Amino acid sequence: MSEYGHGNDERTFAALPPARGGAFTRTWWGLTWLKALEDTALDNQQLKAGRRHARAGAVGAVSVRPGRITAVVKDRDGTAHRSDVLVREFSEEEWERLLDLAVDSAGHIAALLDREMPPHLVEDAAAAGIDLLPGVGDLDPECGCEAWDHCPHTAALCYQVARLLDEDPFVLLLMRGRGERTLLDQLQARSASRAAAPVARDGDGGSPEDTGGMPGVSAEEAYASAFLLPPLPAPPVAPEAPGRVPCLDTDTEPEPGVEPAALEFLAADAAGRAHRLLVEALGAGGDAPELAEAGLTGAQDAVRLAADAPAPWVAARLAAGSGRSRADMDLATRAWRFGGAAALAVLEEEWTPDAEALVRAGARLAEAWEDDERPVLRRAGGARWTAVGAEAQLRLGEDGRWWPYLKSAGRWAPAGPSDRDPAAALATAFAAGAG
Question: Residues with Cβ < 8 Å from 202, sequence gap 6 or more?
Fold first, then answer.
């Protein structure tokens, strides 16, 4: 989600790329937004046309500000229309109630900071008479095409905004009248005020003396106030490169079976991995990253080593040691560069989903394209589907991700990284074939 304007009262998001297929939104609050659109519009044909506009990338940059979202939407002939959708802003009194509800639960604040819309906050707000998410009639359209109801242009804008809401529910809160920075400042002020206030201890049998003269706070309040703590000191700067590997070519003869050059290569690999772990840990604020190489078999680790394009003699040794031909190793390293051990398993291991998983895969393939765009796919055994009339194939991994493959010199070769969307994966295979 690229954003090139970010003020407290207005945010502008760059135009999103075309949607290749599948649903427009994956979150429950995004689905609620689209339901409000679909329940409000009187003409389903206009909604379908708007969905096609959004899929085709016809919606320009989207401006979000209190009470209004705006974008320029183009028709197929290039005619541009300014489209607006109005959303009711909350009153000051409604904001006061909503902020009180948010600080009442540590989980509400934690979810918002994690860019999620907590369902309990929505339910609590509704119980207090505040409809945080839009309902029927809450999305009021205005368009330069002068339609009196939702037209394809305002519908396309709403579909595009659903994608923005998936990534950041603060977009919805800005429409309701308050920007992210203002909200966080107000939440901090309320949390700090509550933390400083005396704690009531009605009927619990305790007193400040029971805790050494220090009044306590509830666990929820302590957790909610955690983001008020001052930041940690800046982490140290990682070195620009791994350390130098010592030279093992000495006058002393090595023990039988020990090759100094091979040891130097393995030492350089270990130093490189240690450096990457350090850079990742410092970049993540000190969190220890997972070691991607942990748990690899010898054959898998040989591919990992070969994927860094070592000297030819090293690559030949790795291929022979792992029981692969040079051609097999070339395919294996290509897969590894696209997705590590998971991609290698899809290349070299054929698995057959159970009946339920096959049904789910078939349904995912069926919904990934519009009816008039769906390619003909033939199952090629296991978890593989070949595009009829094209040298392209989809392979389903055991993790539910789709991998693009392309036939080259009579063999199926990995064509790109995996994707949750089979349509996007197949488009990657076609693009690799065209290149």
Answer: none
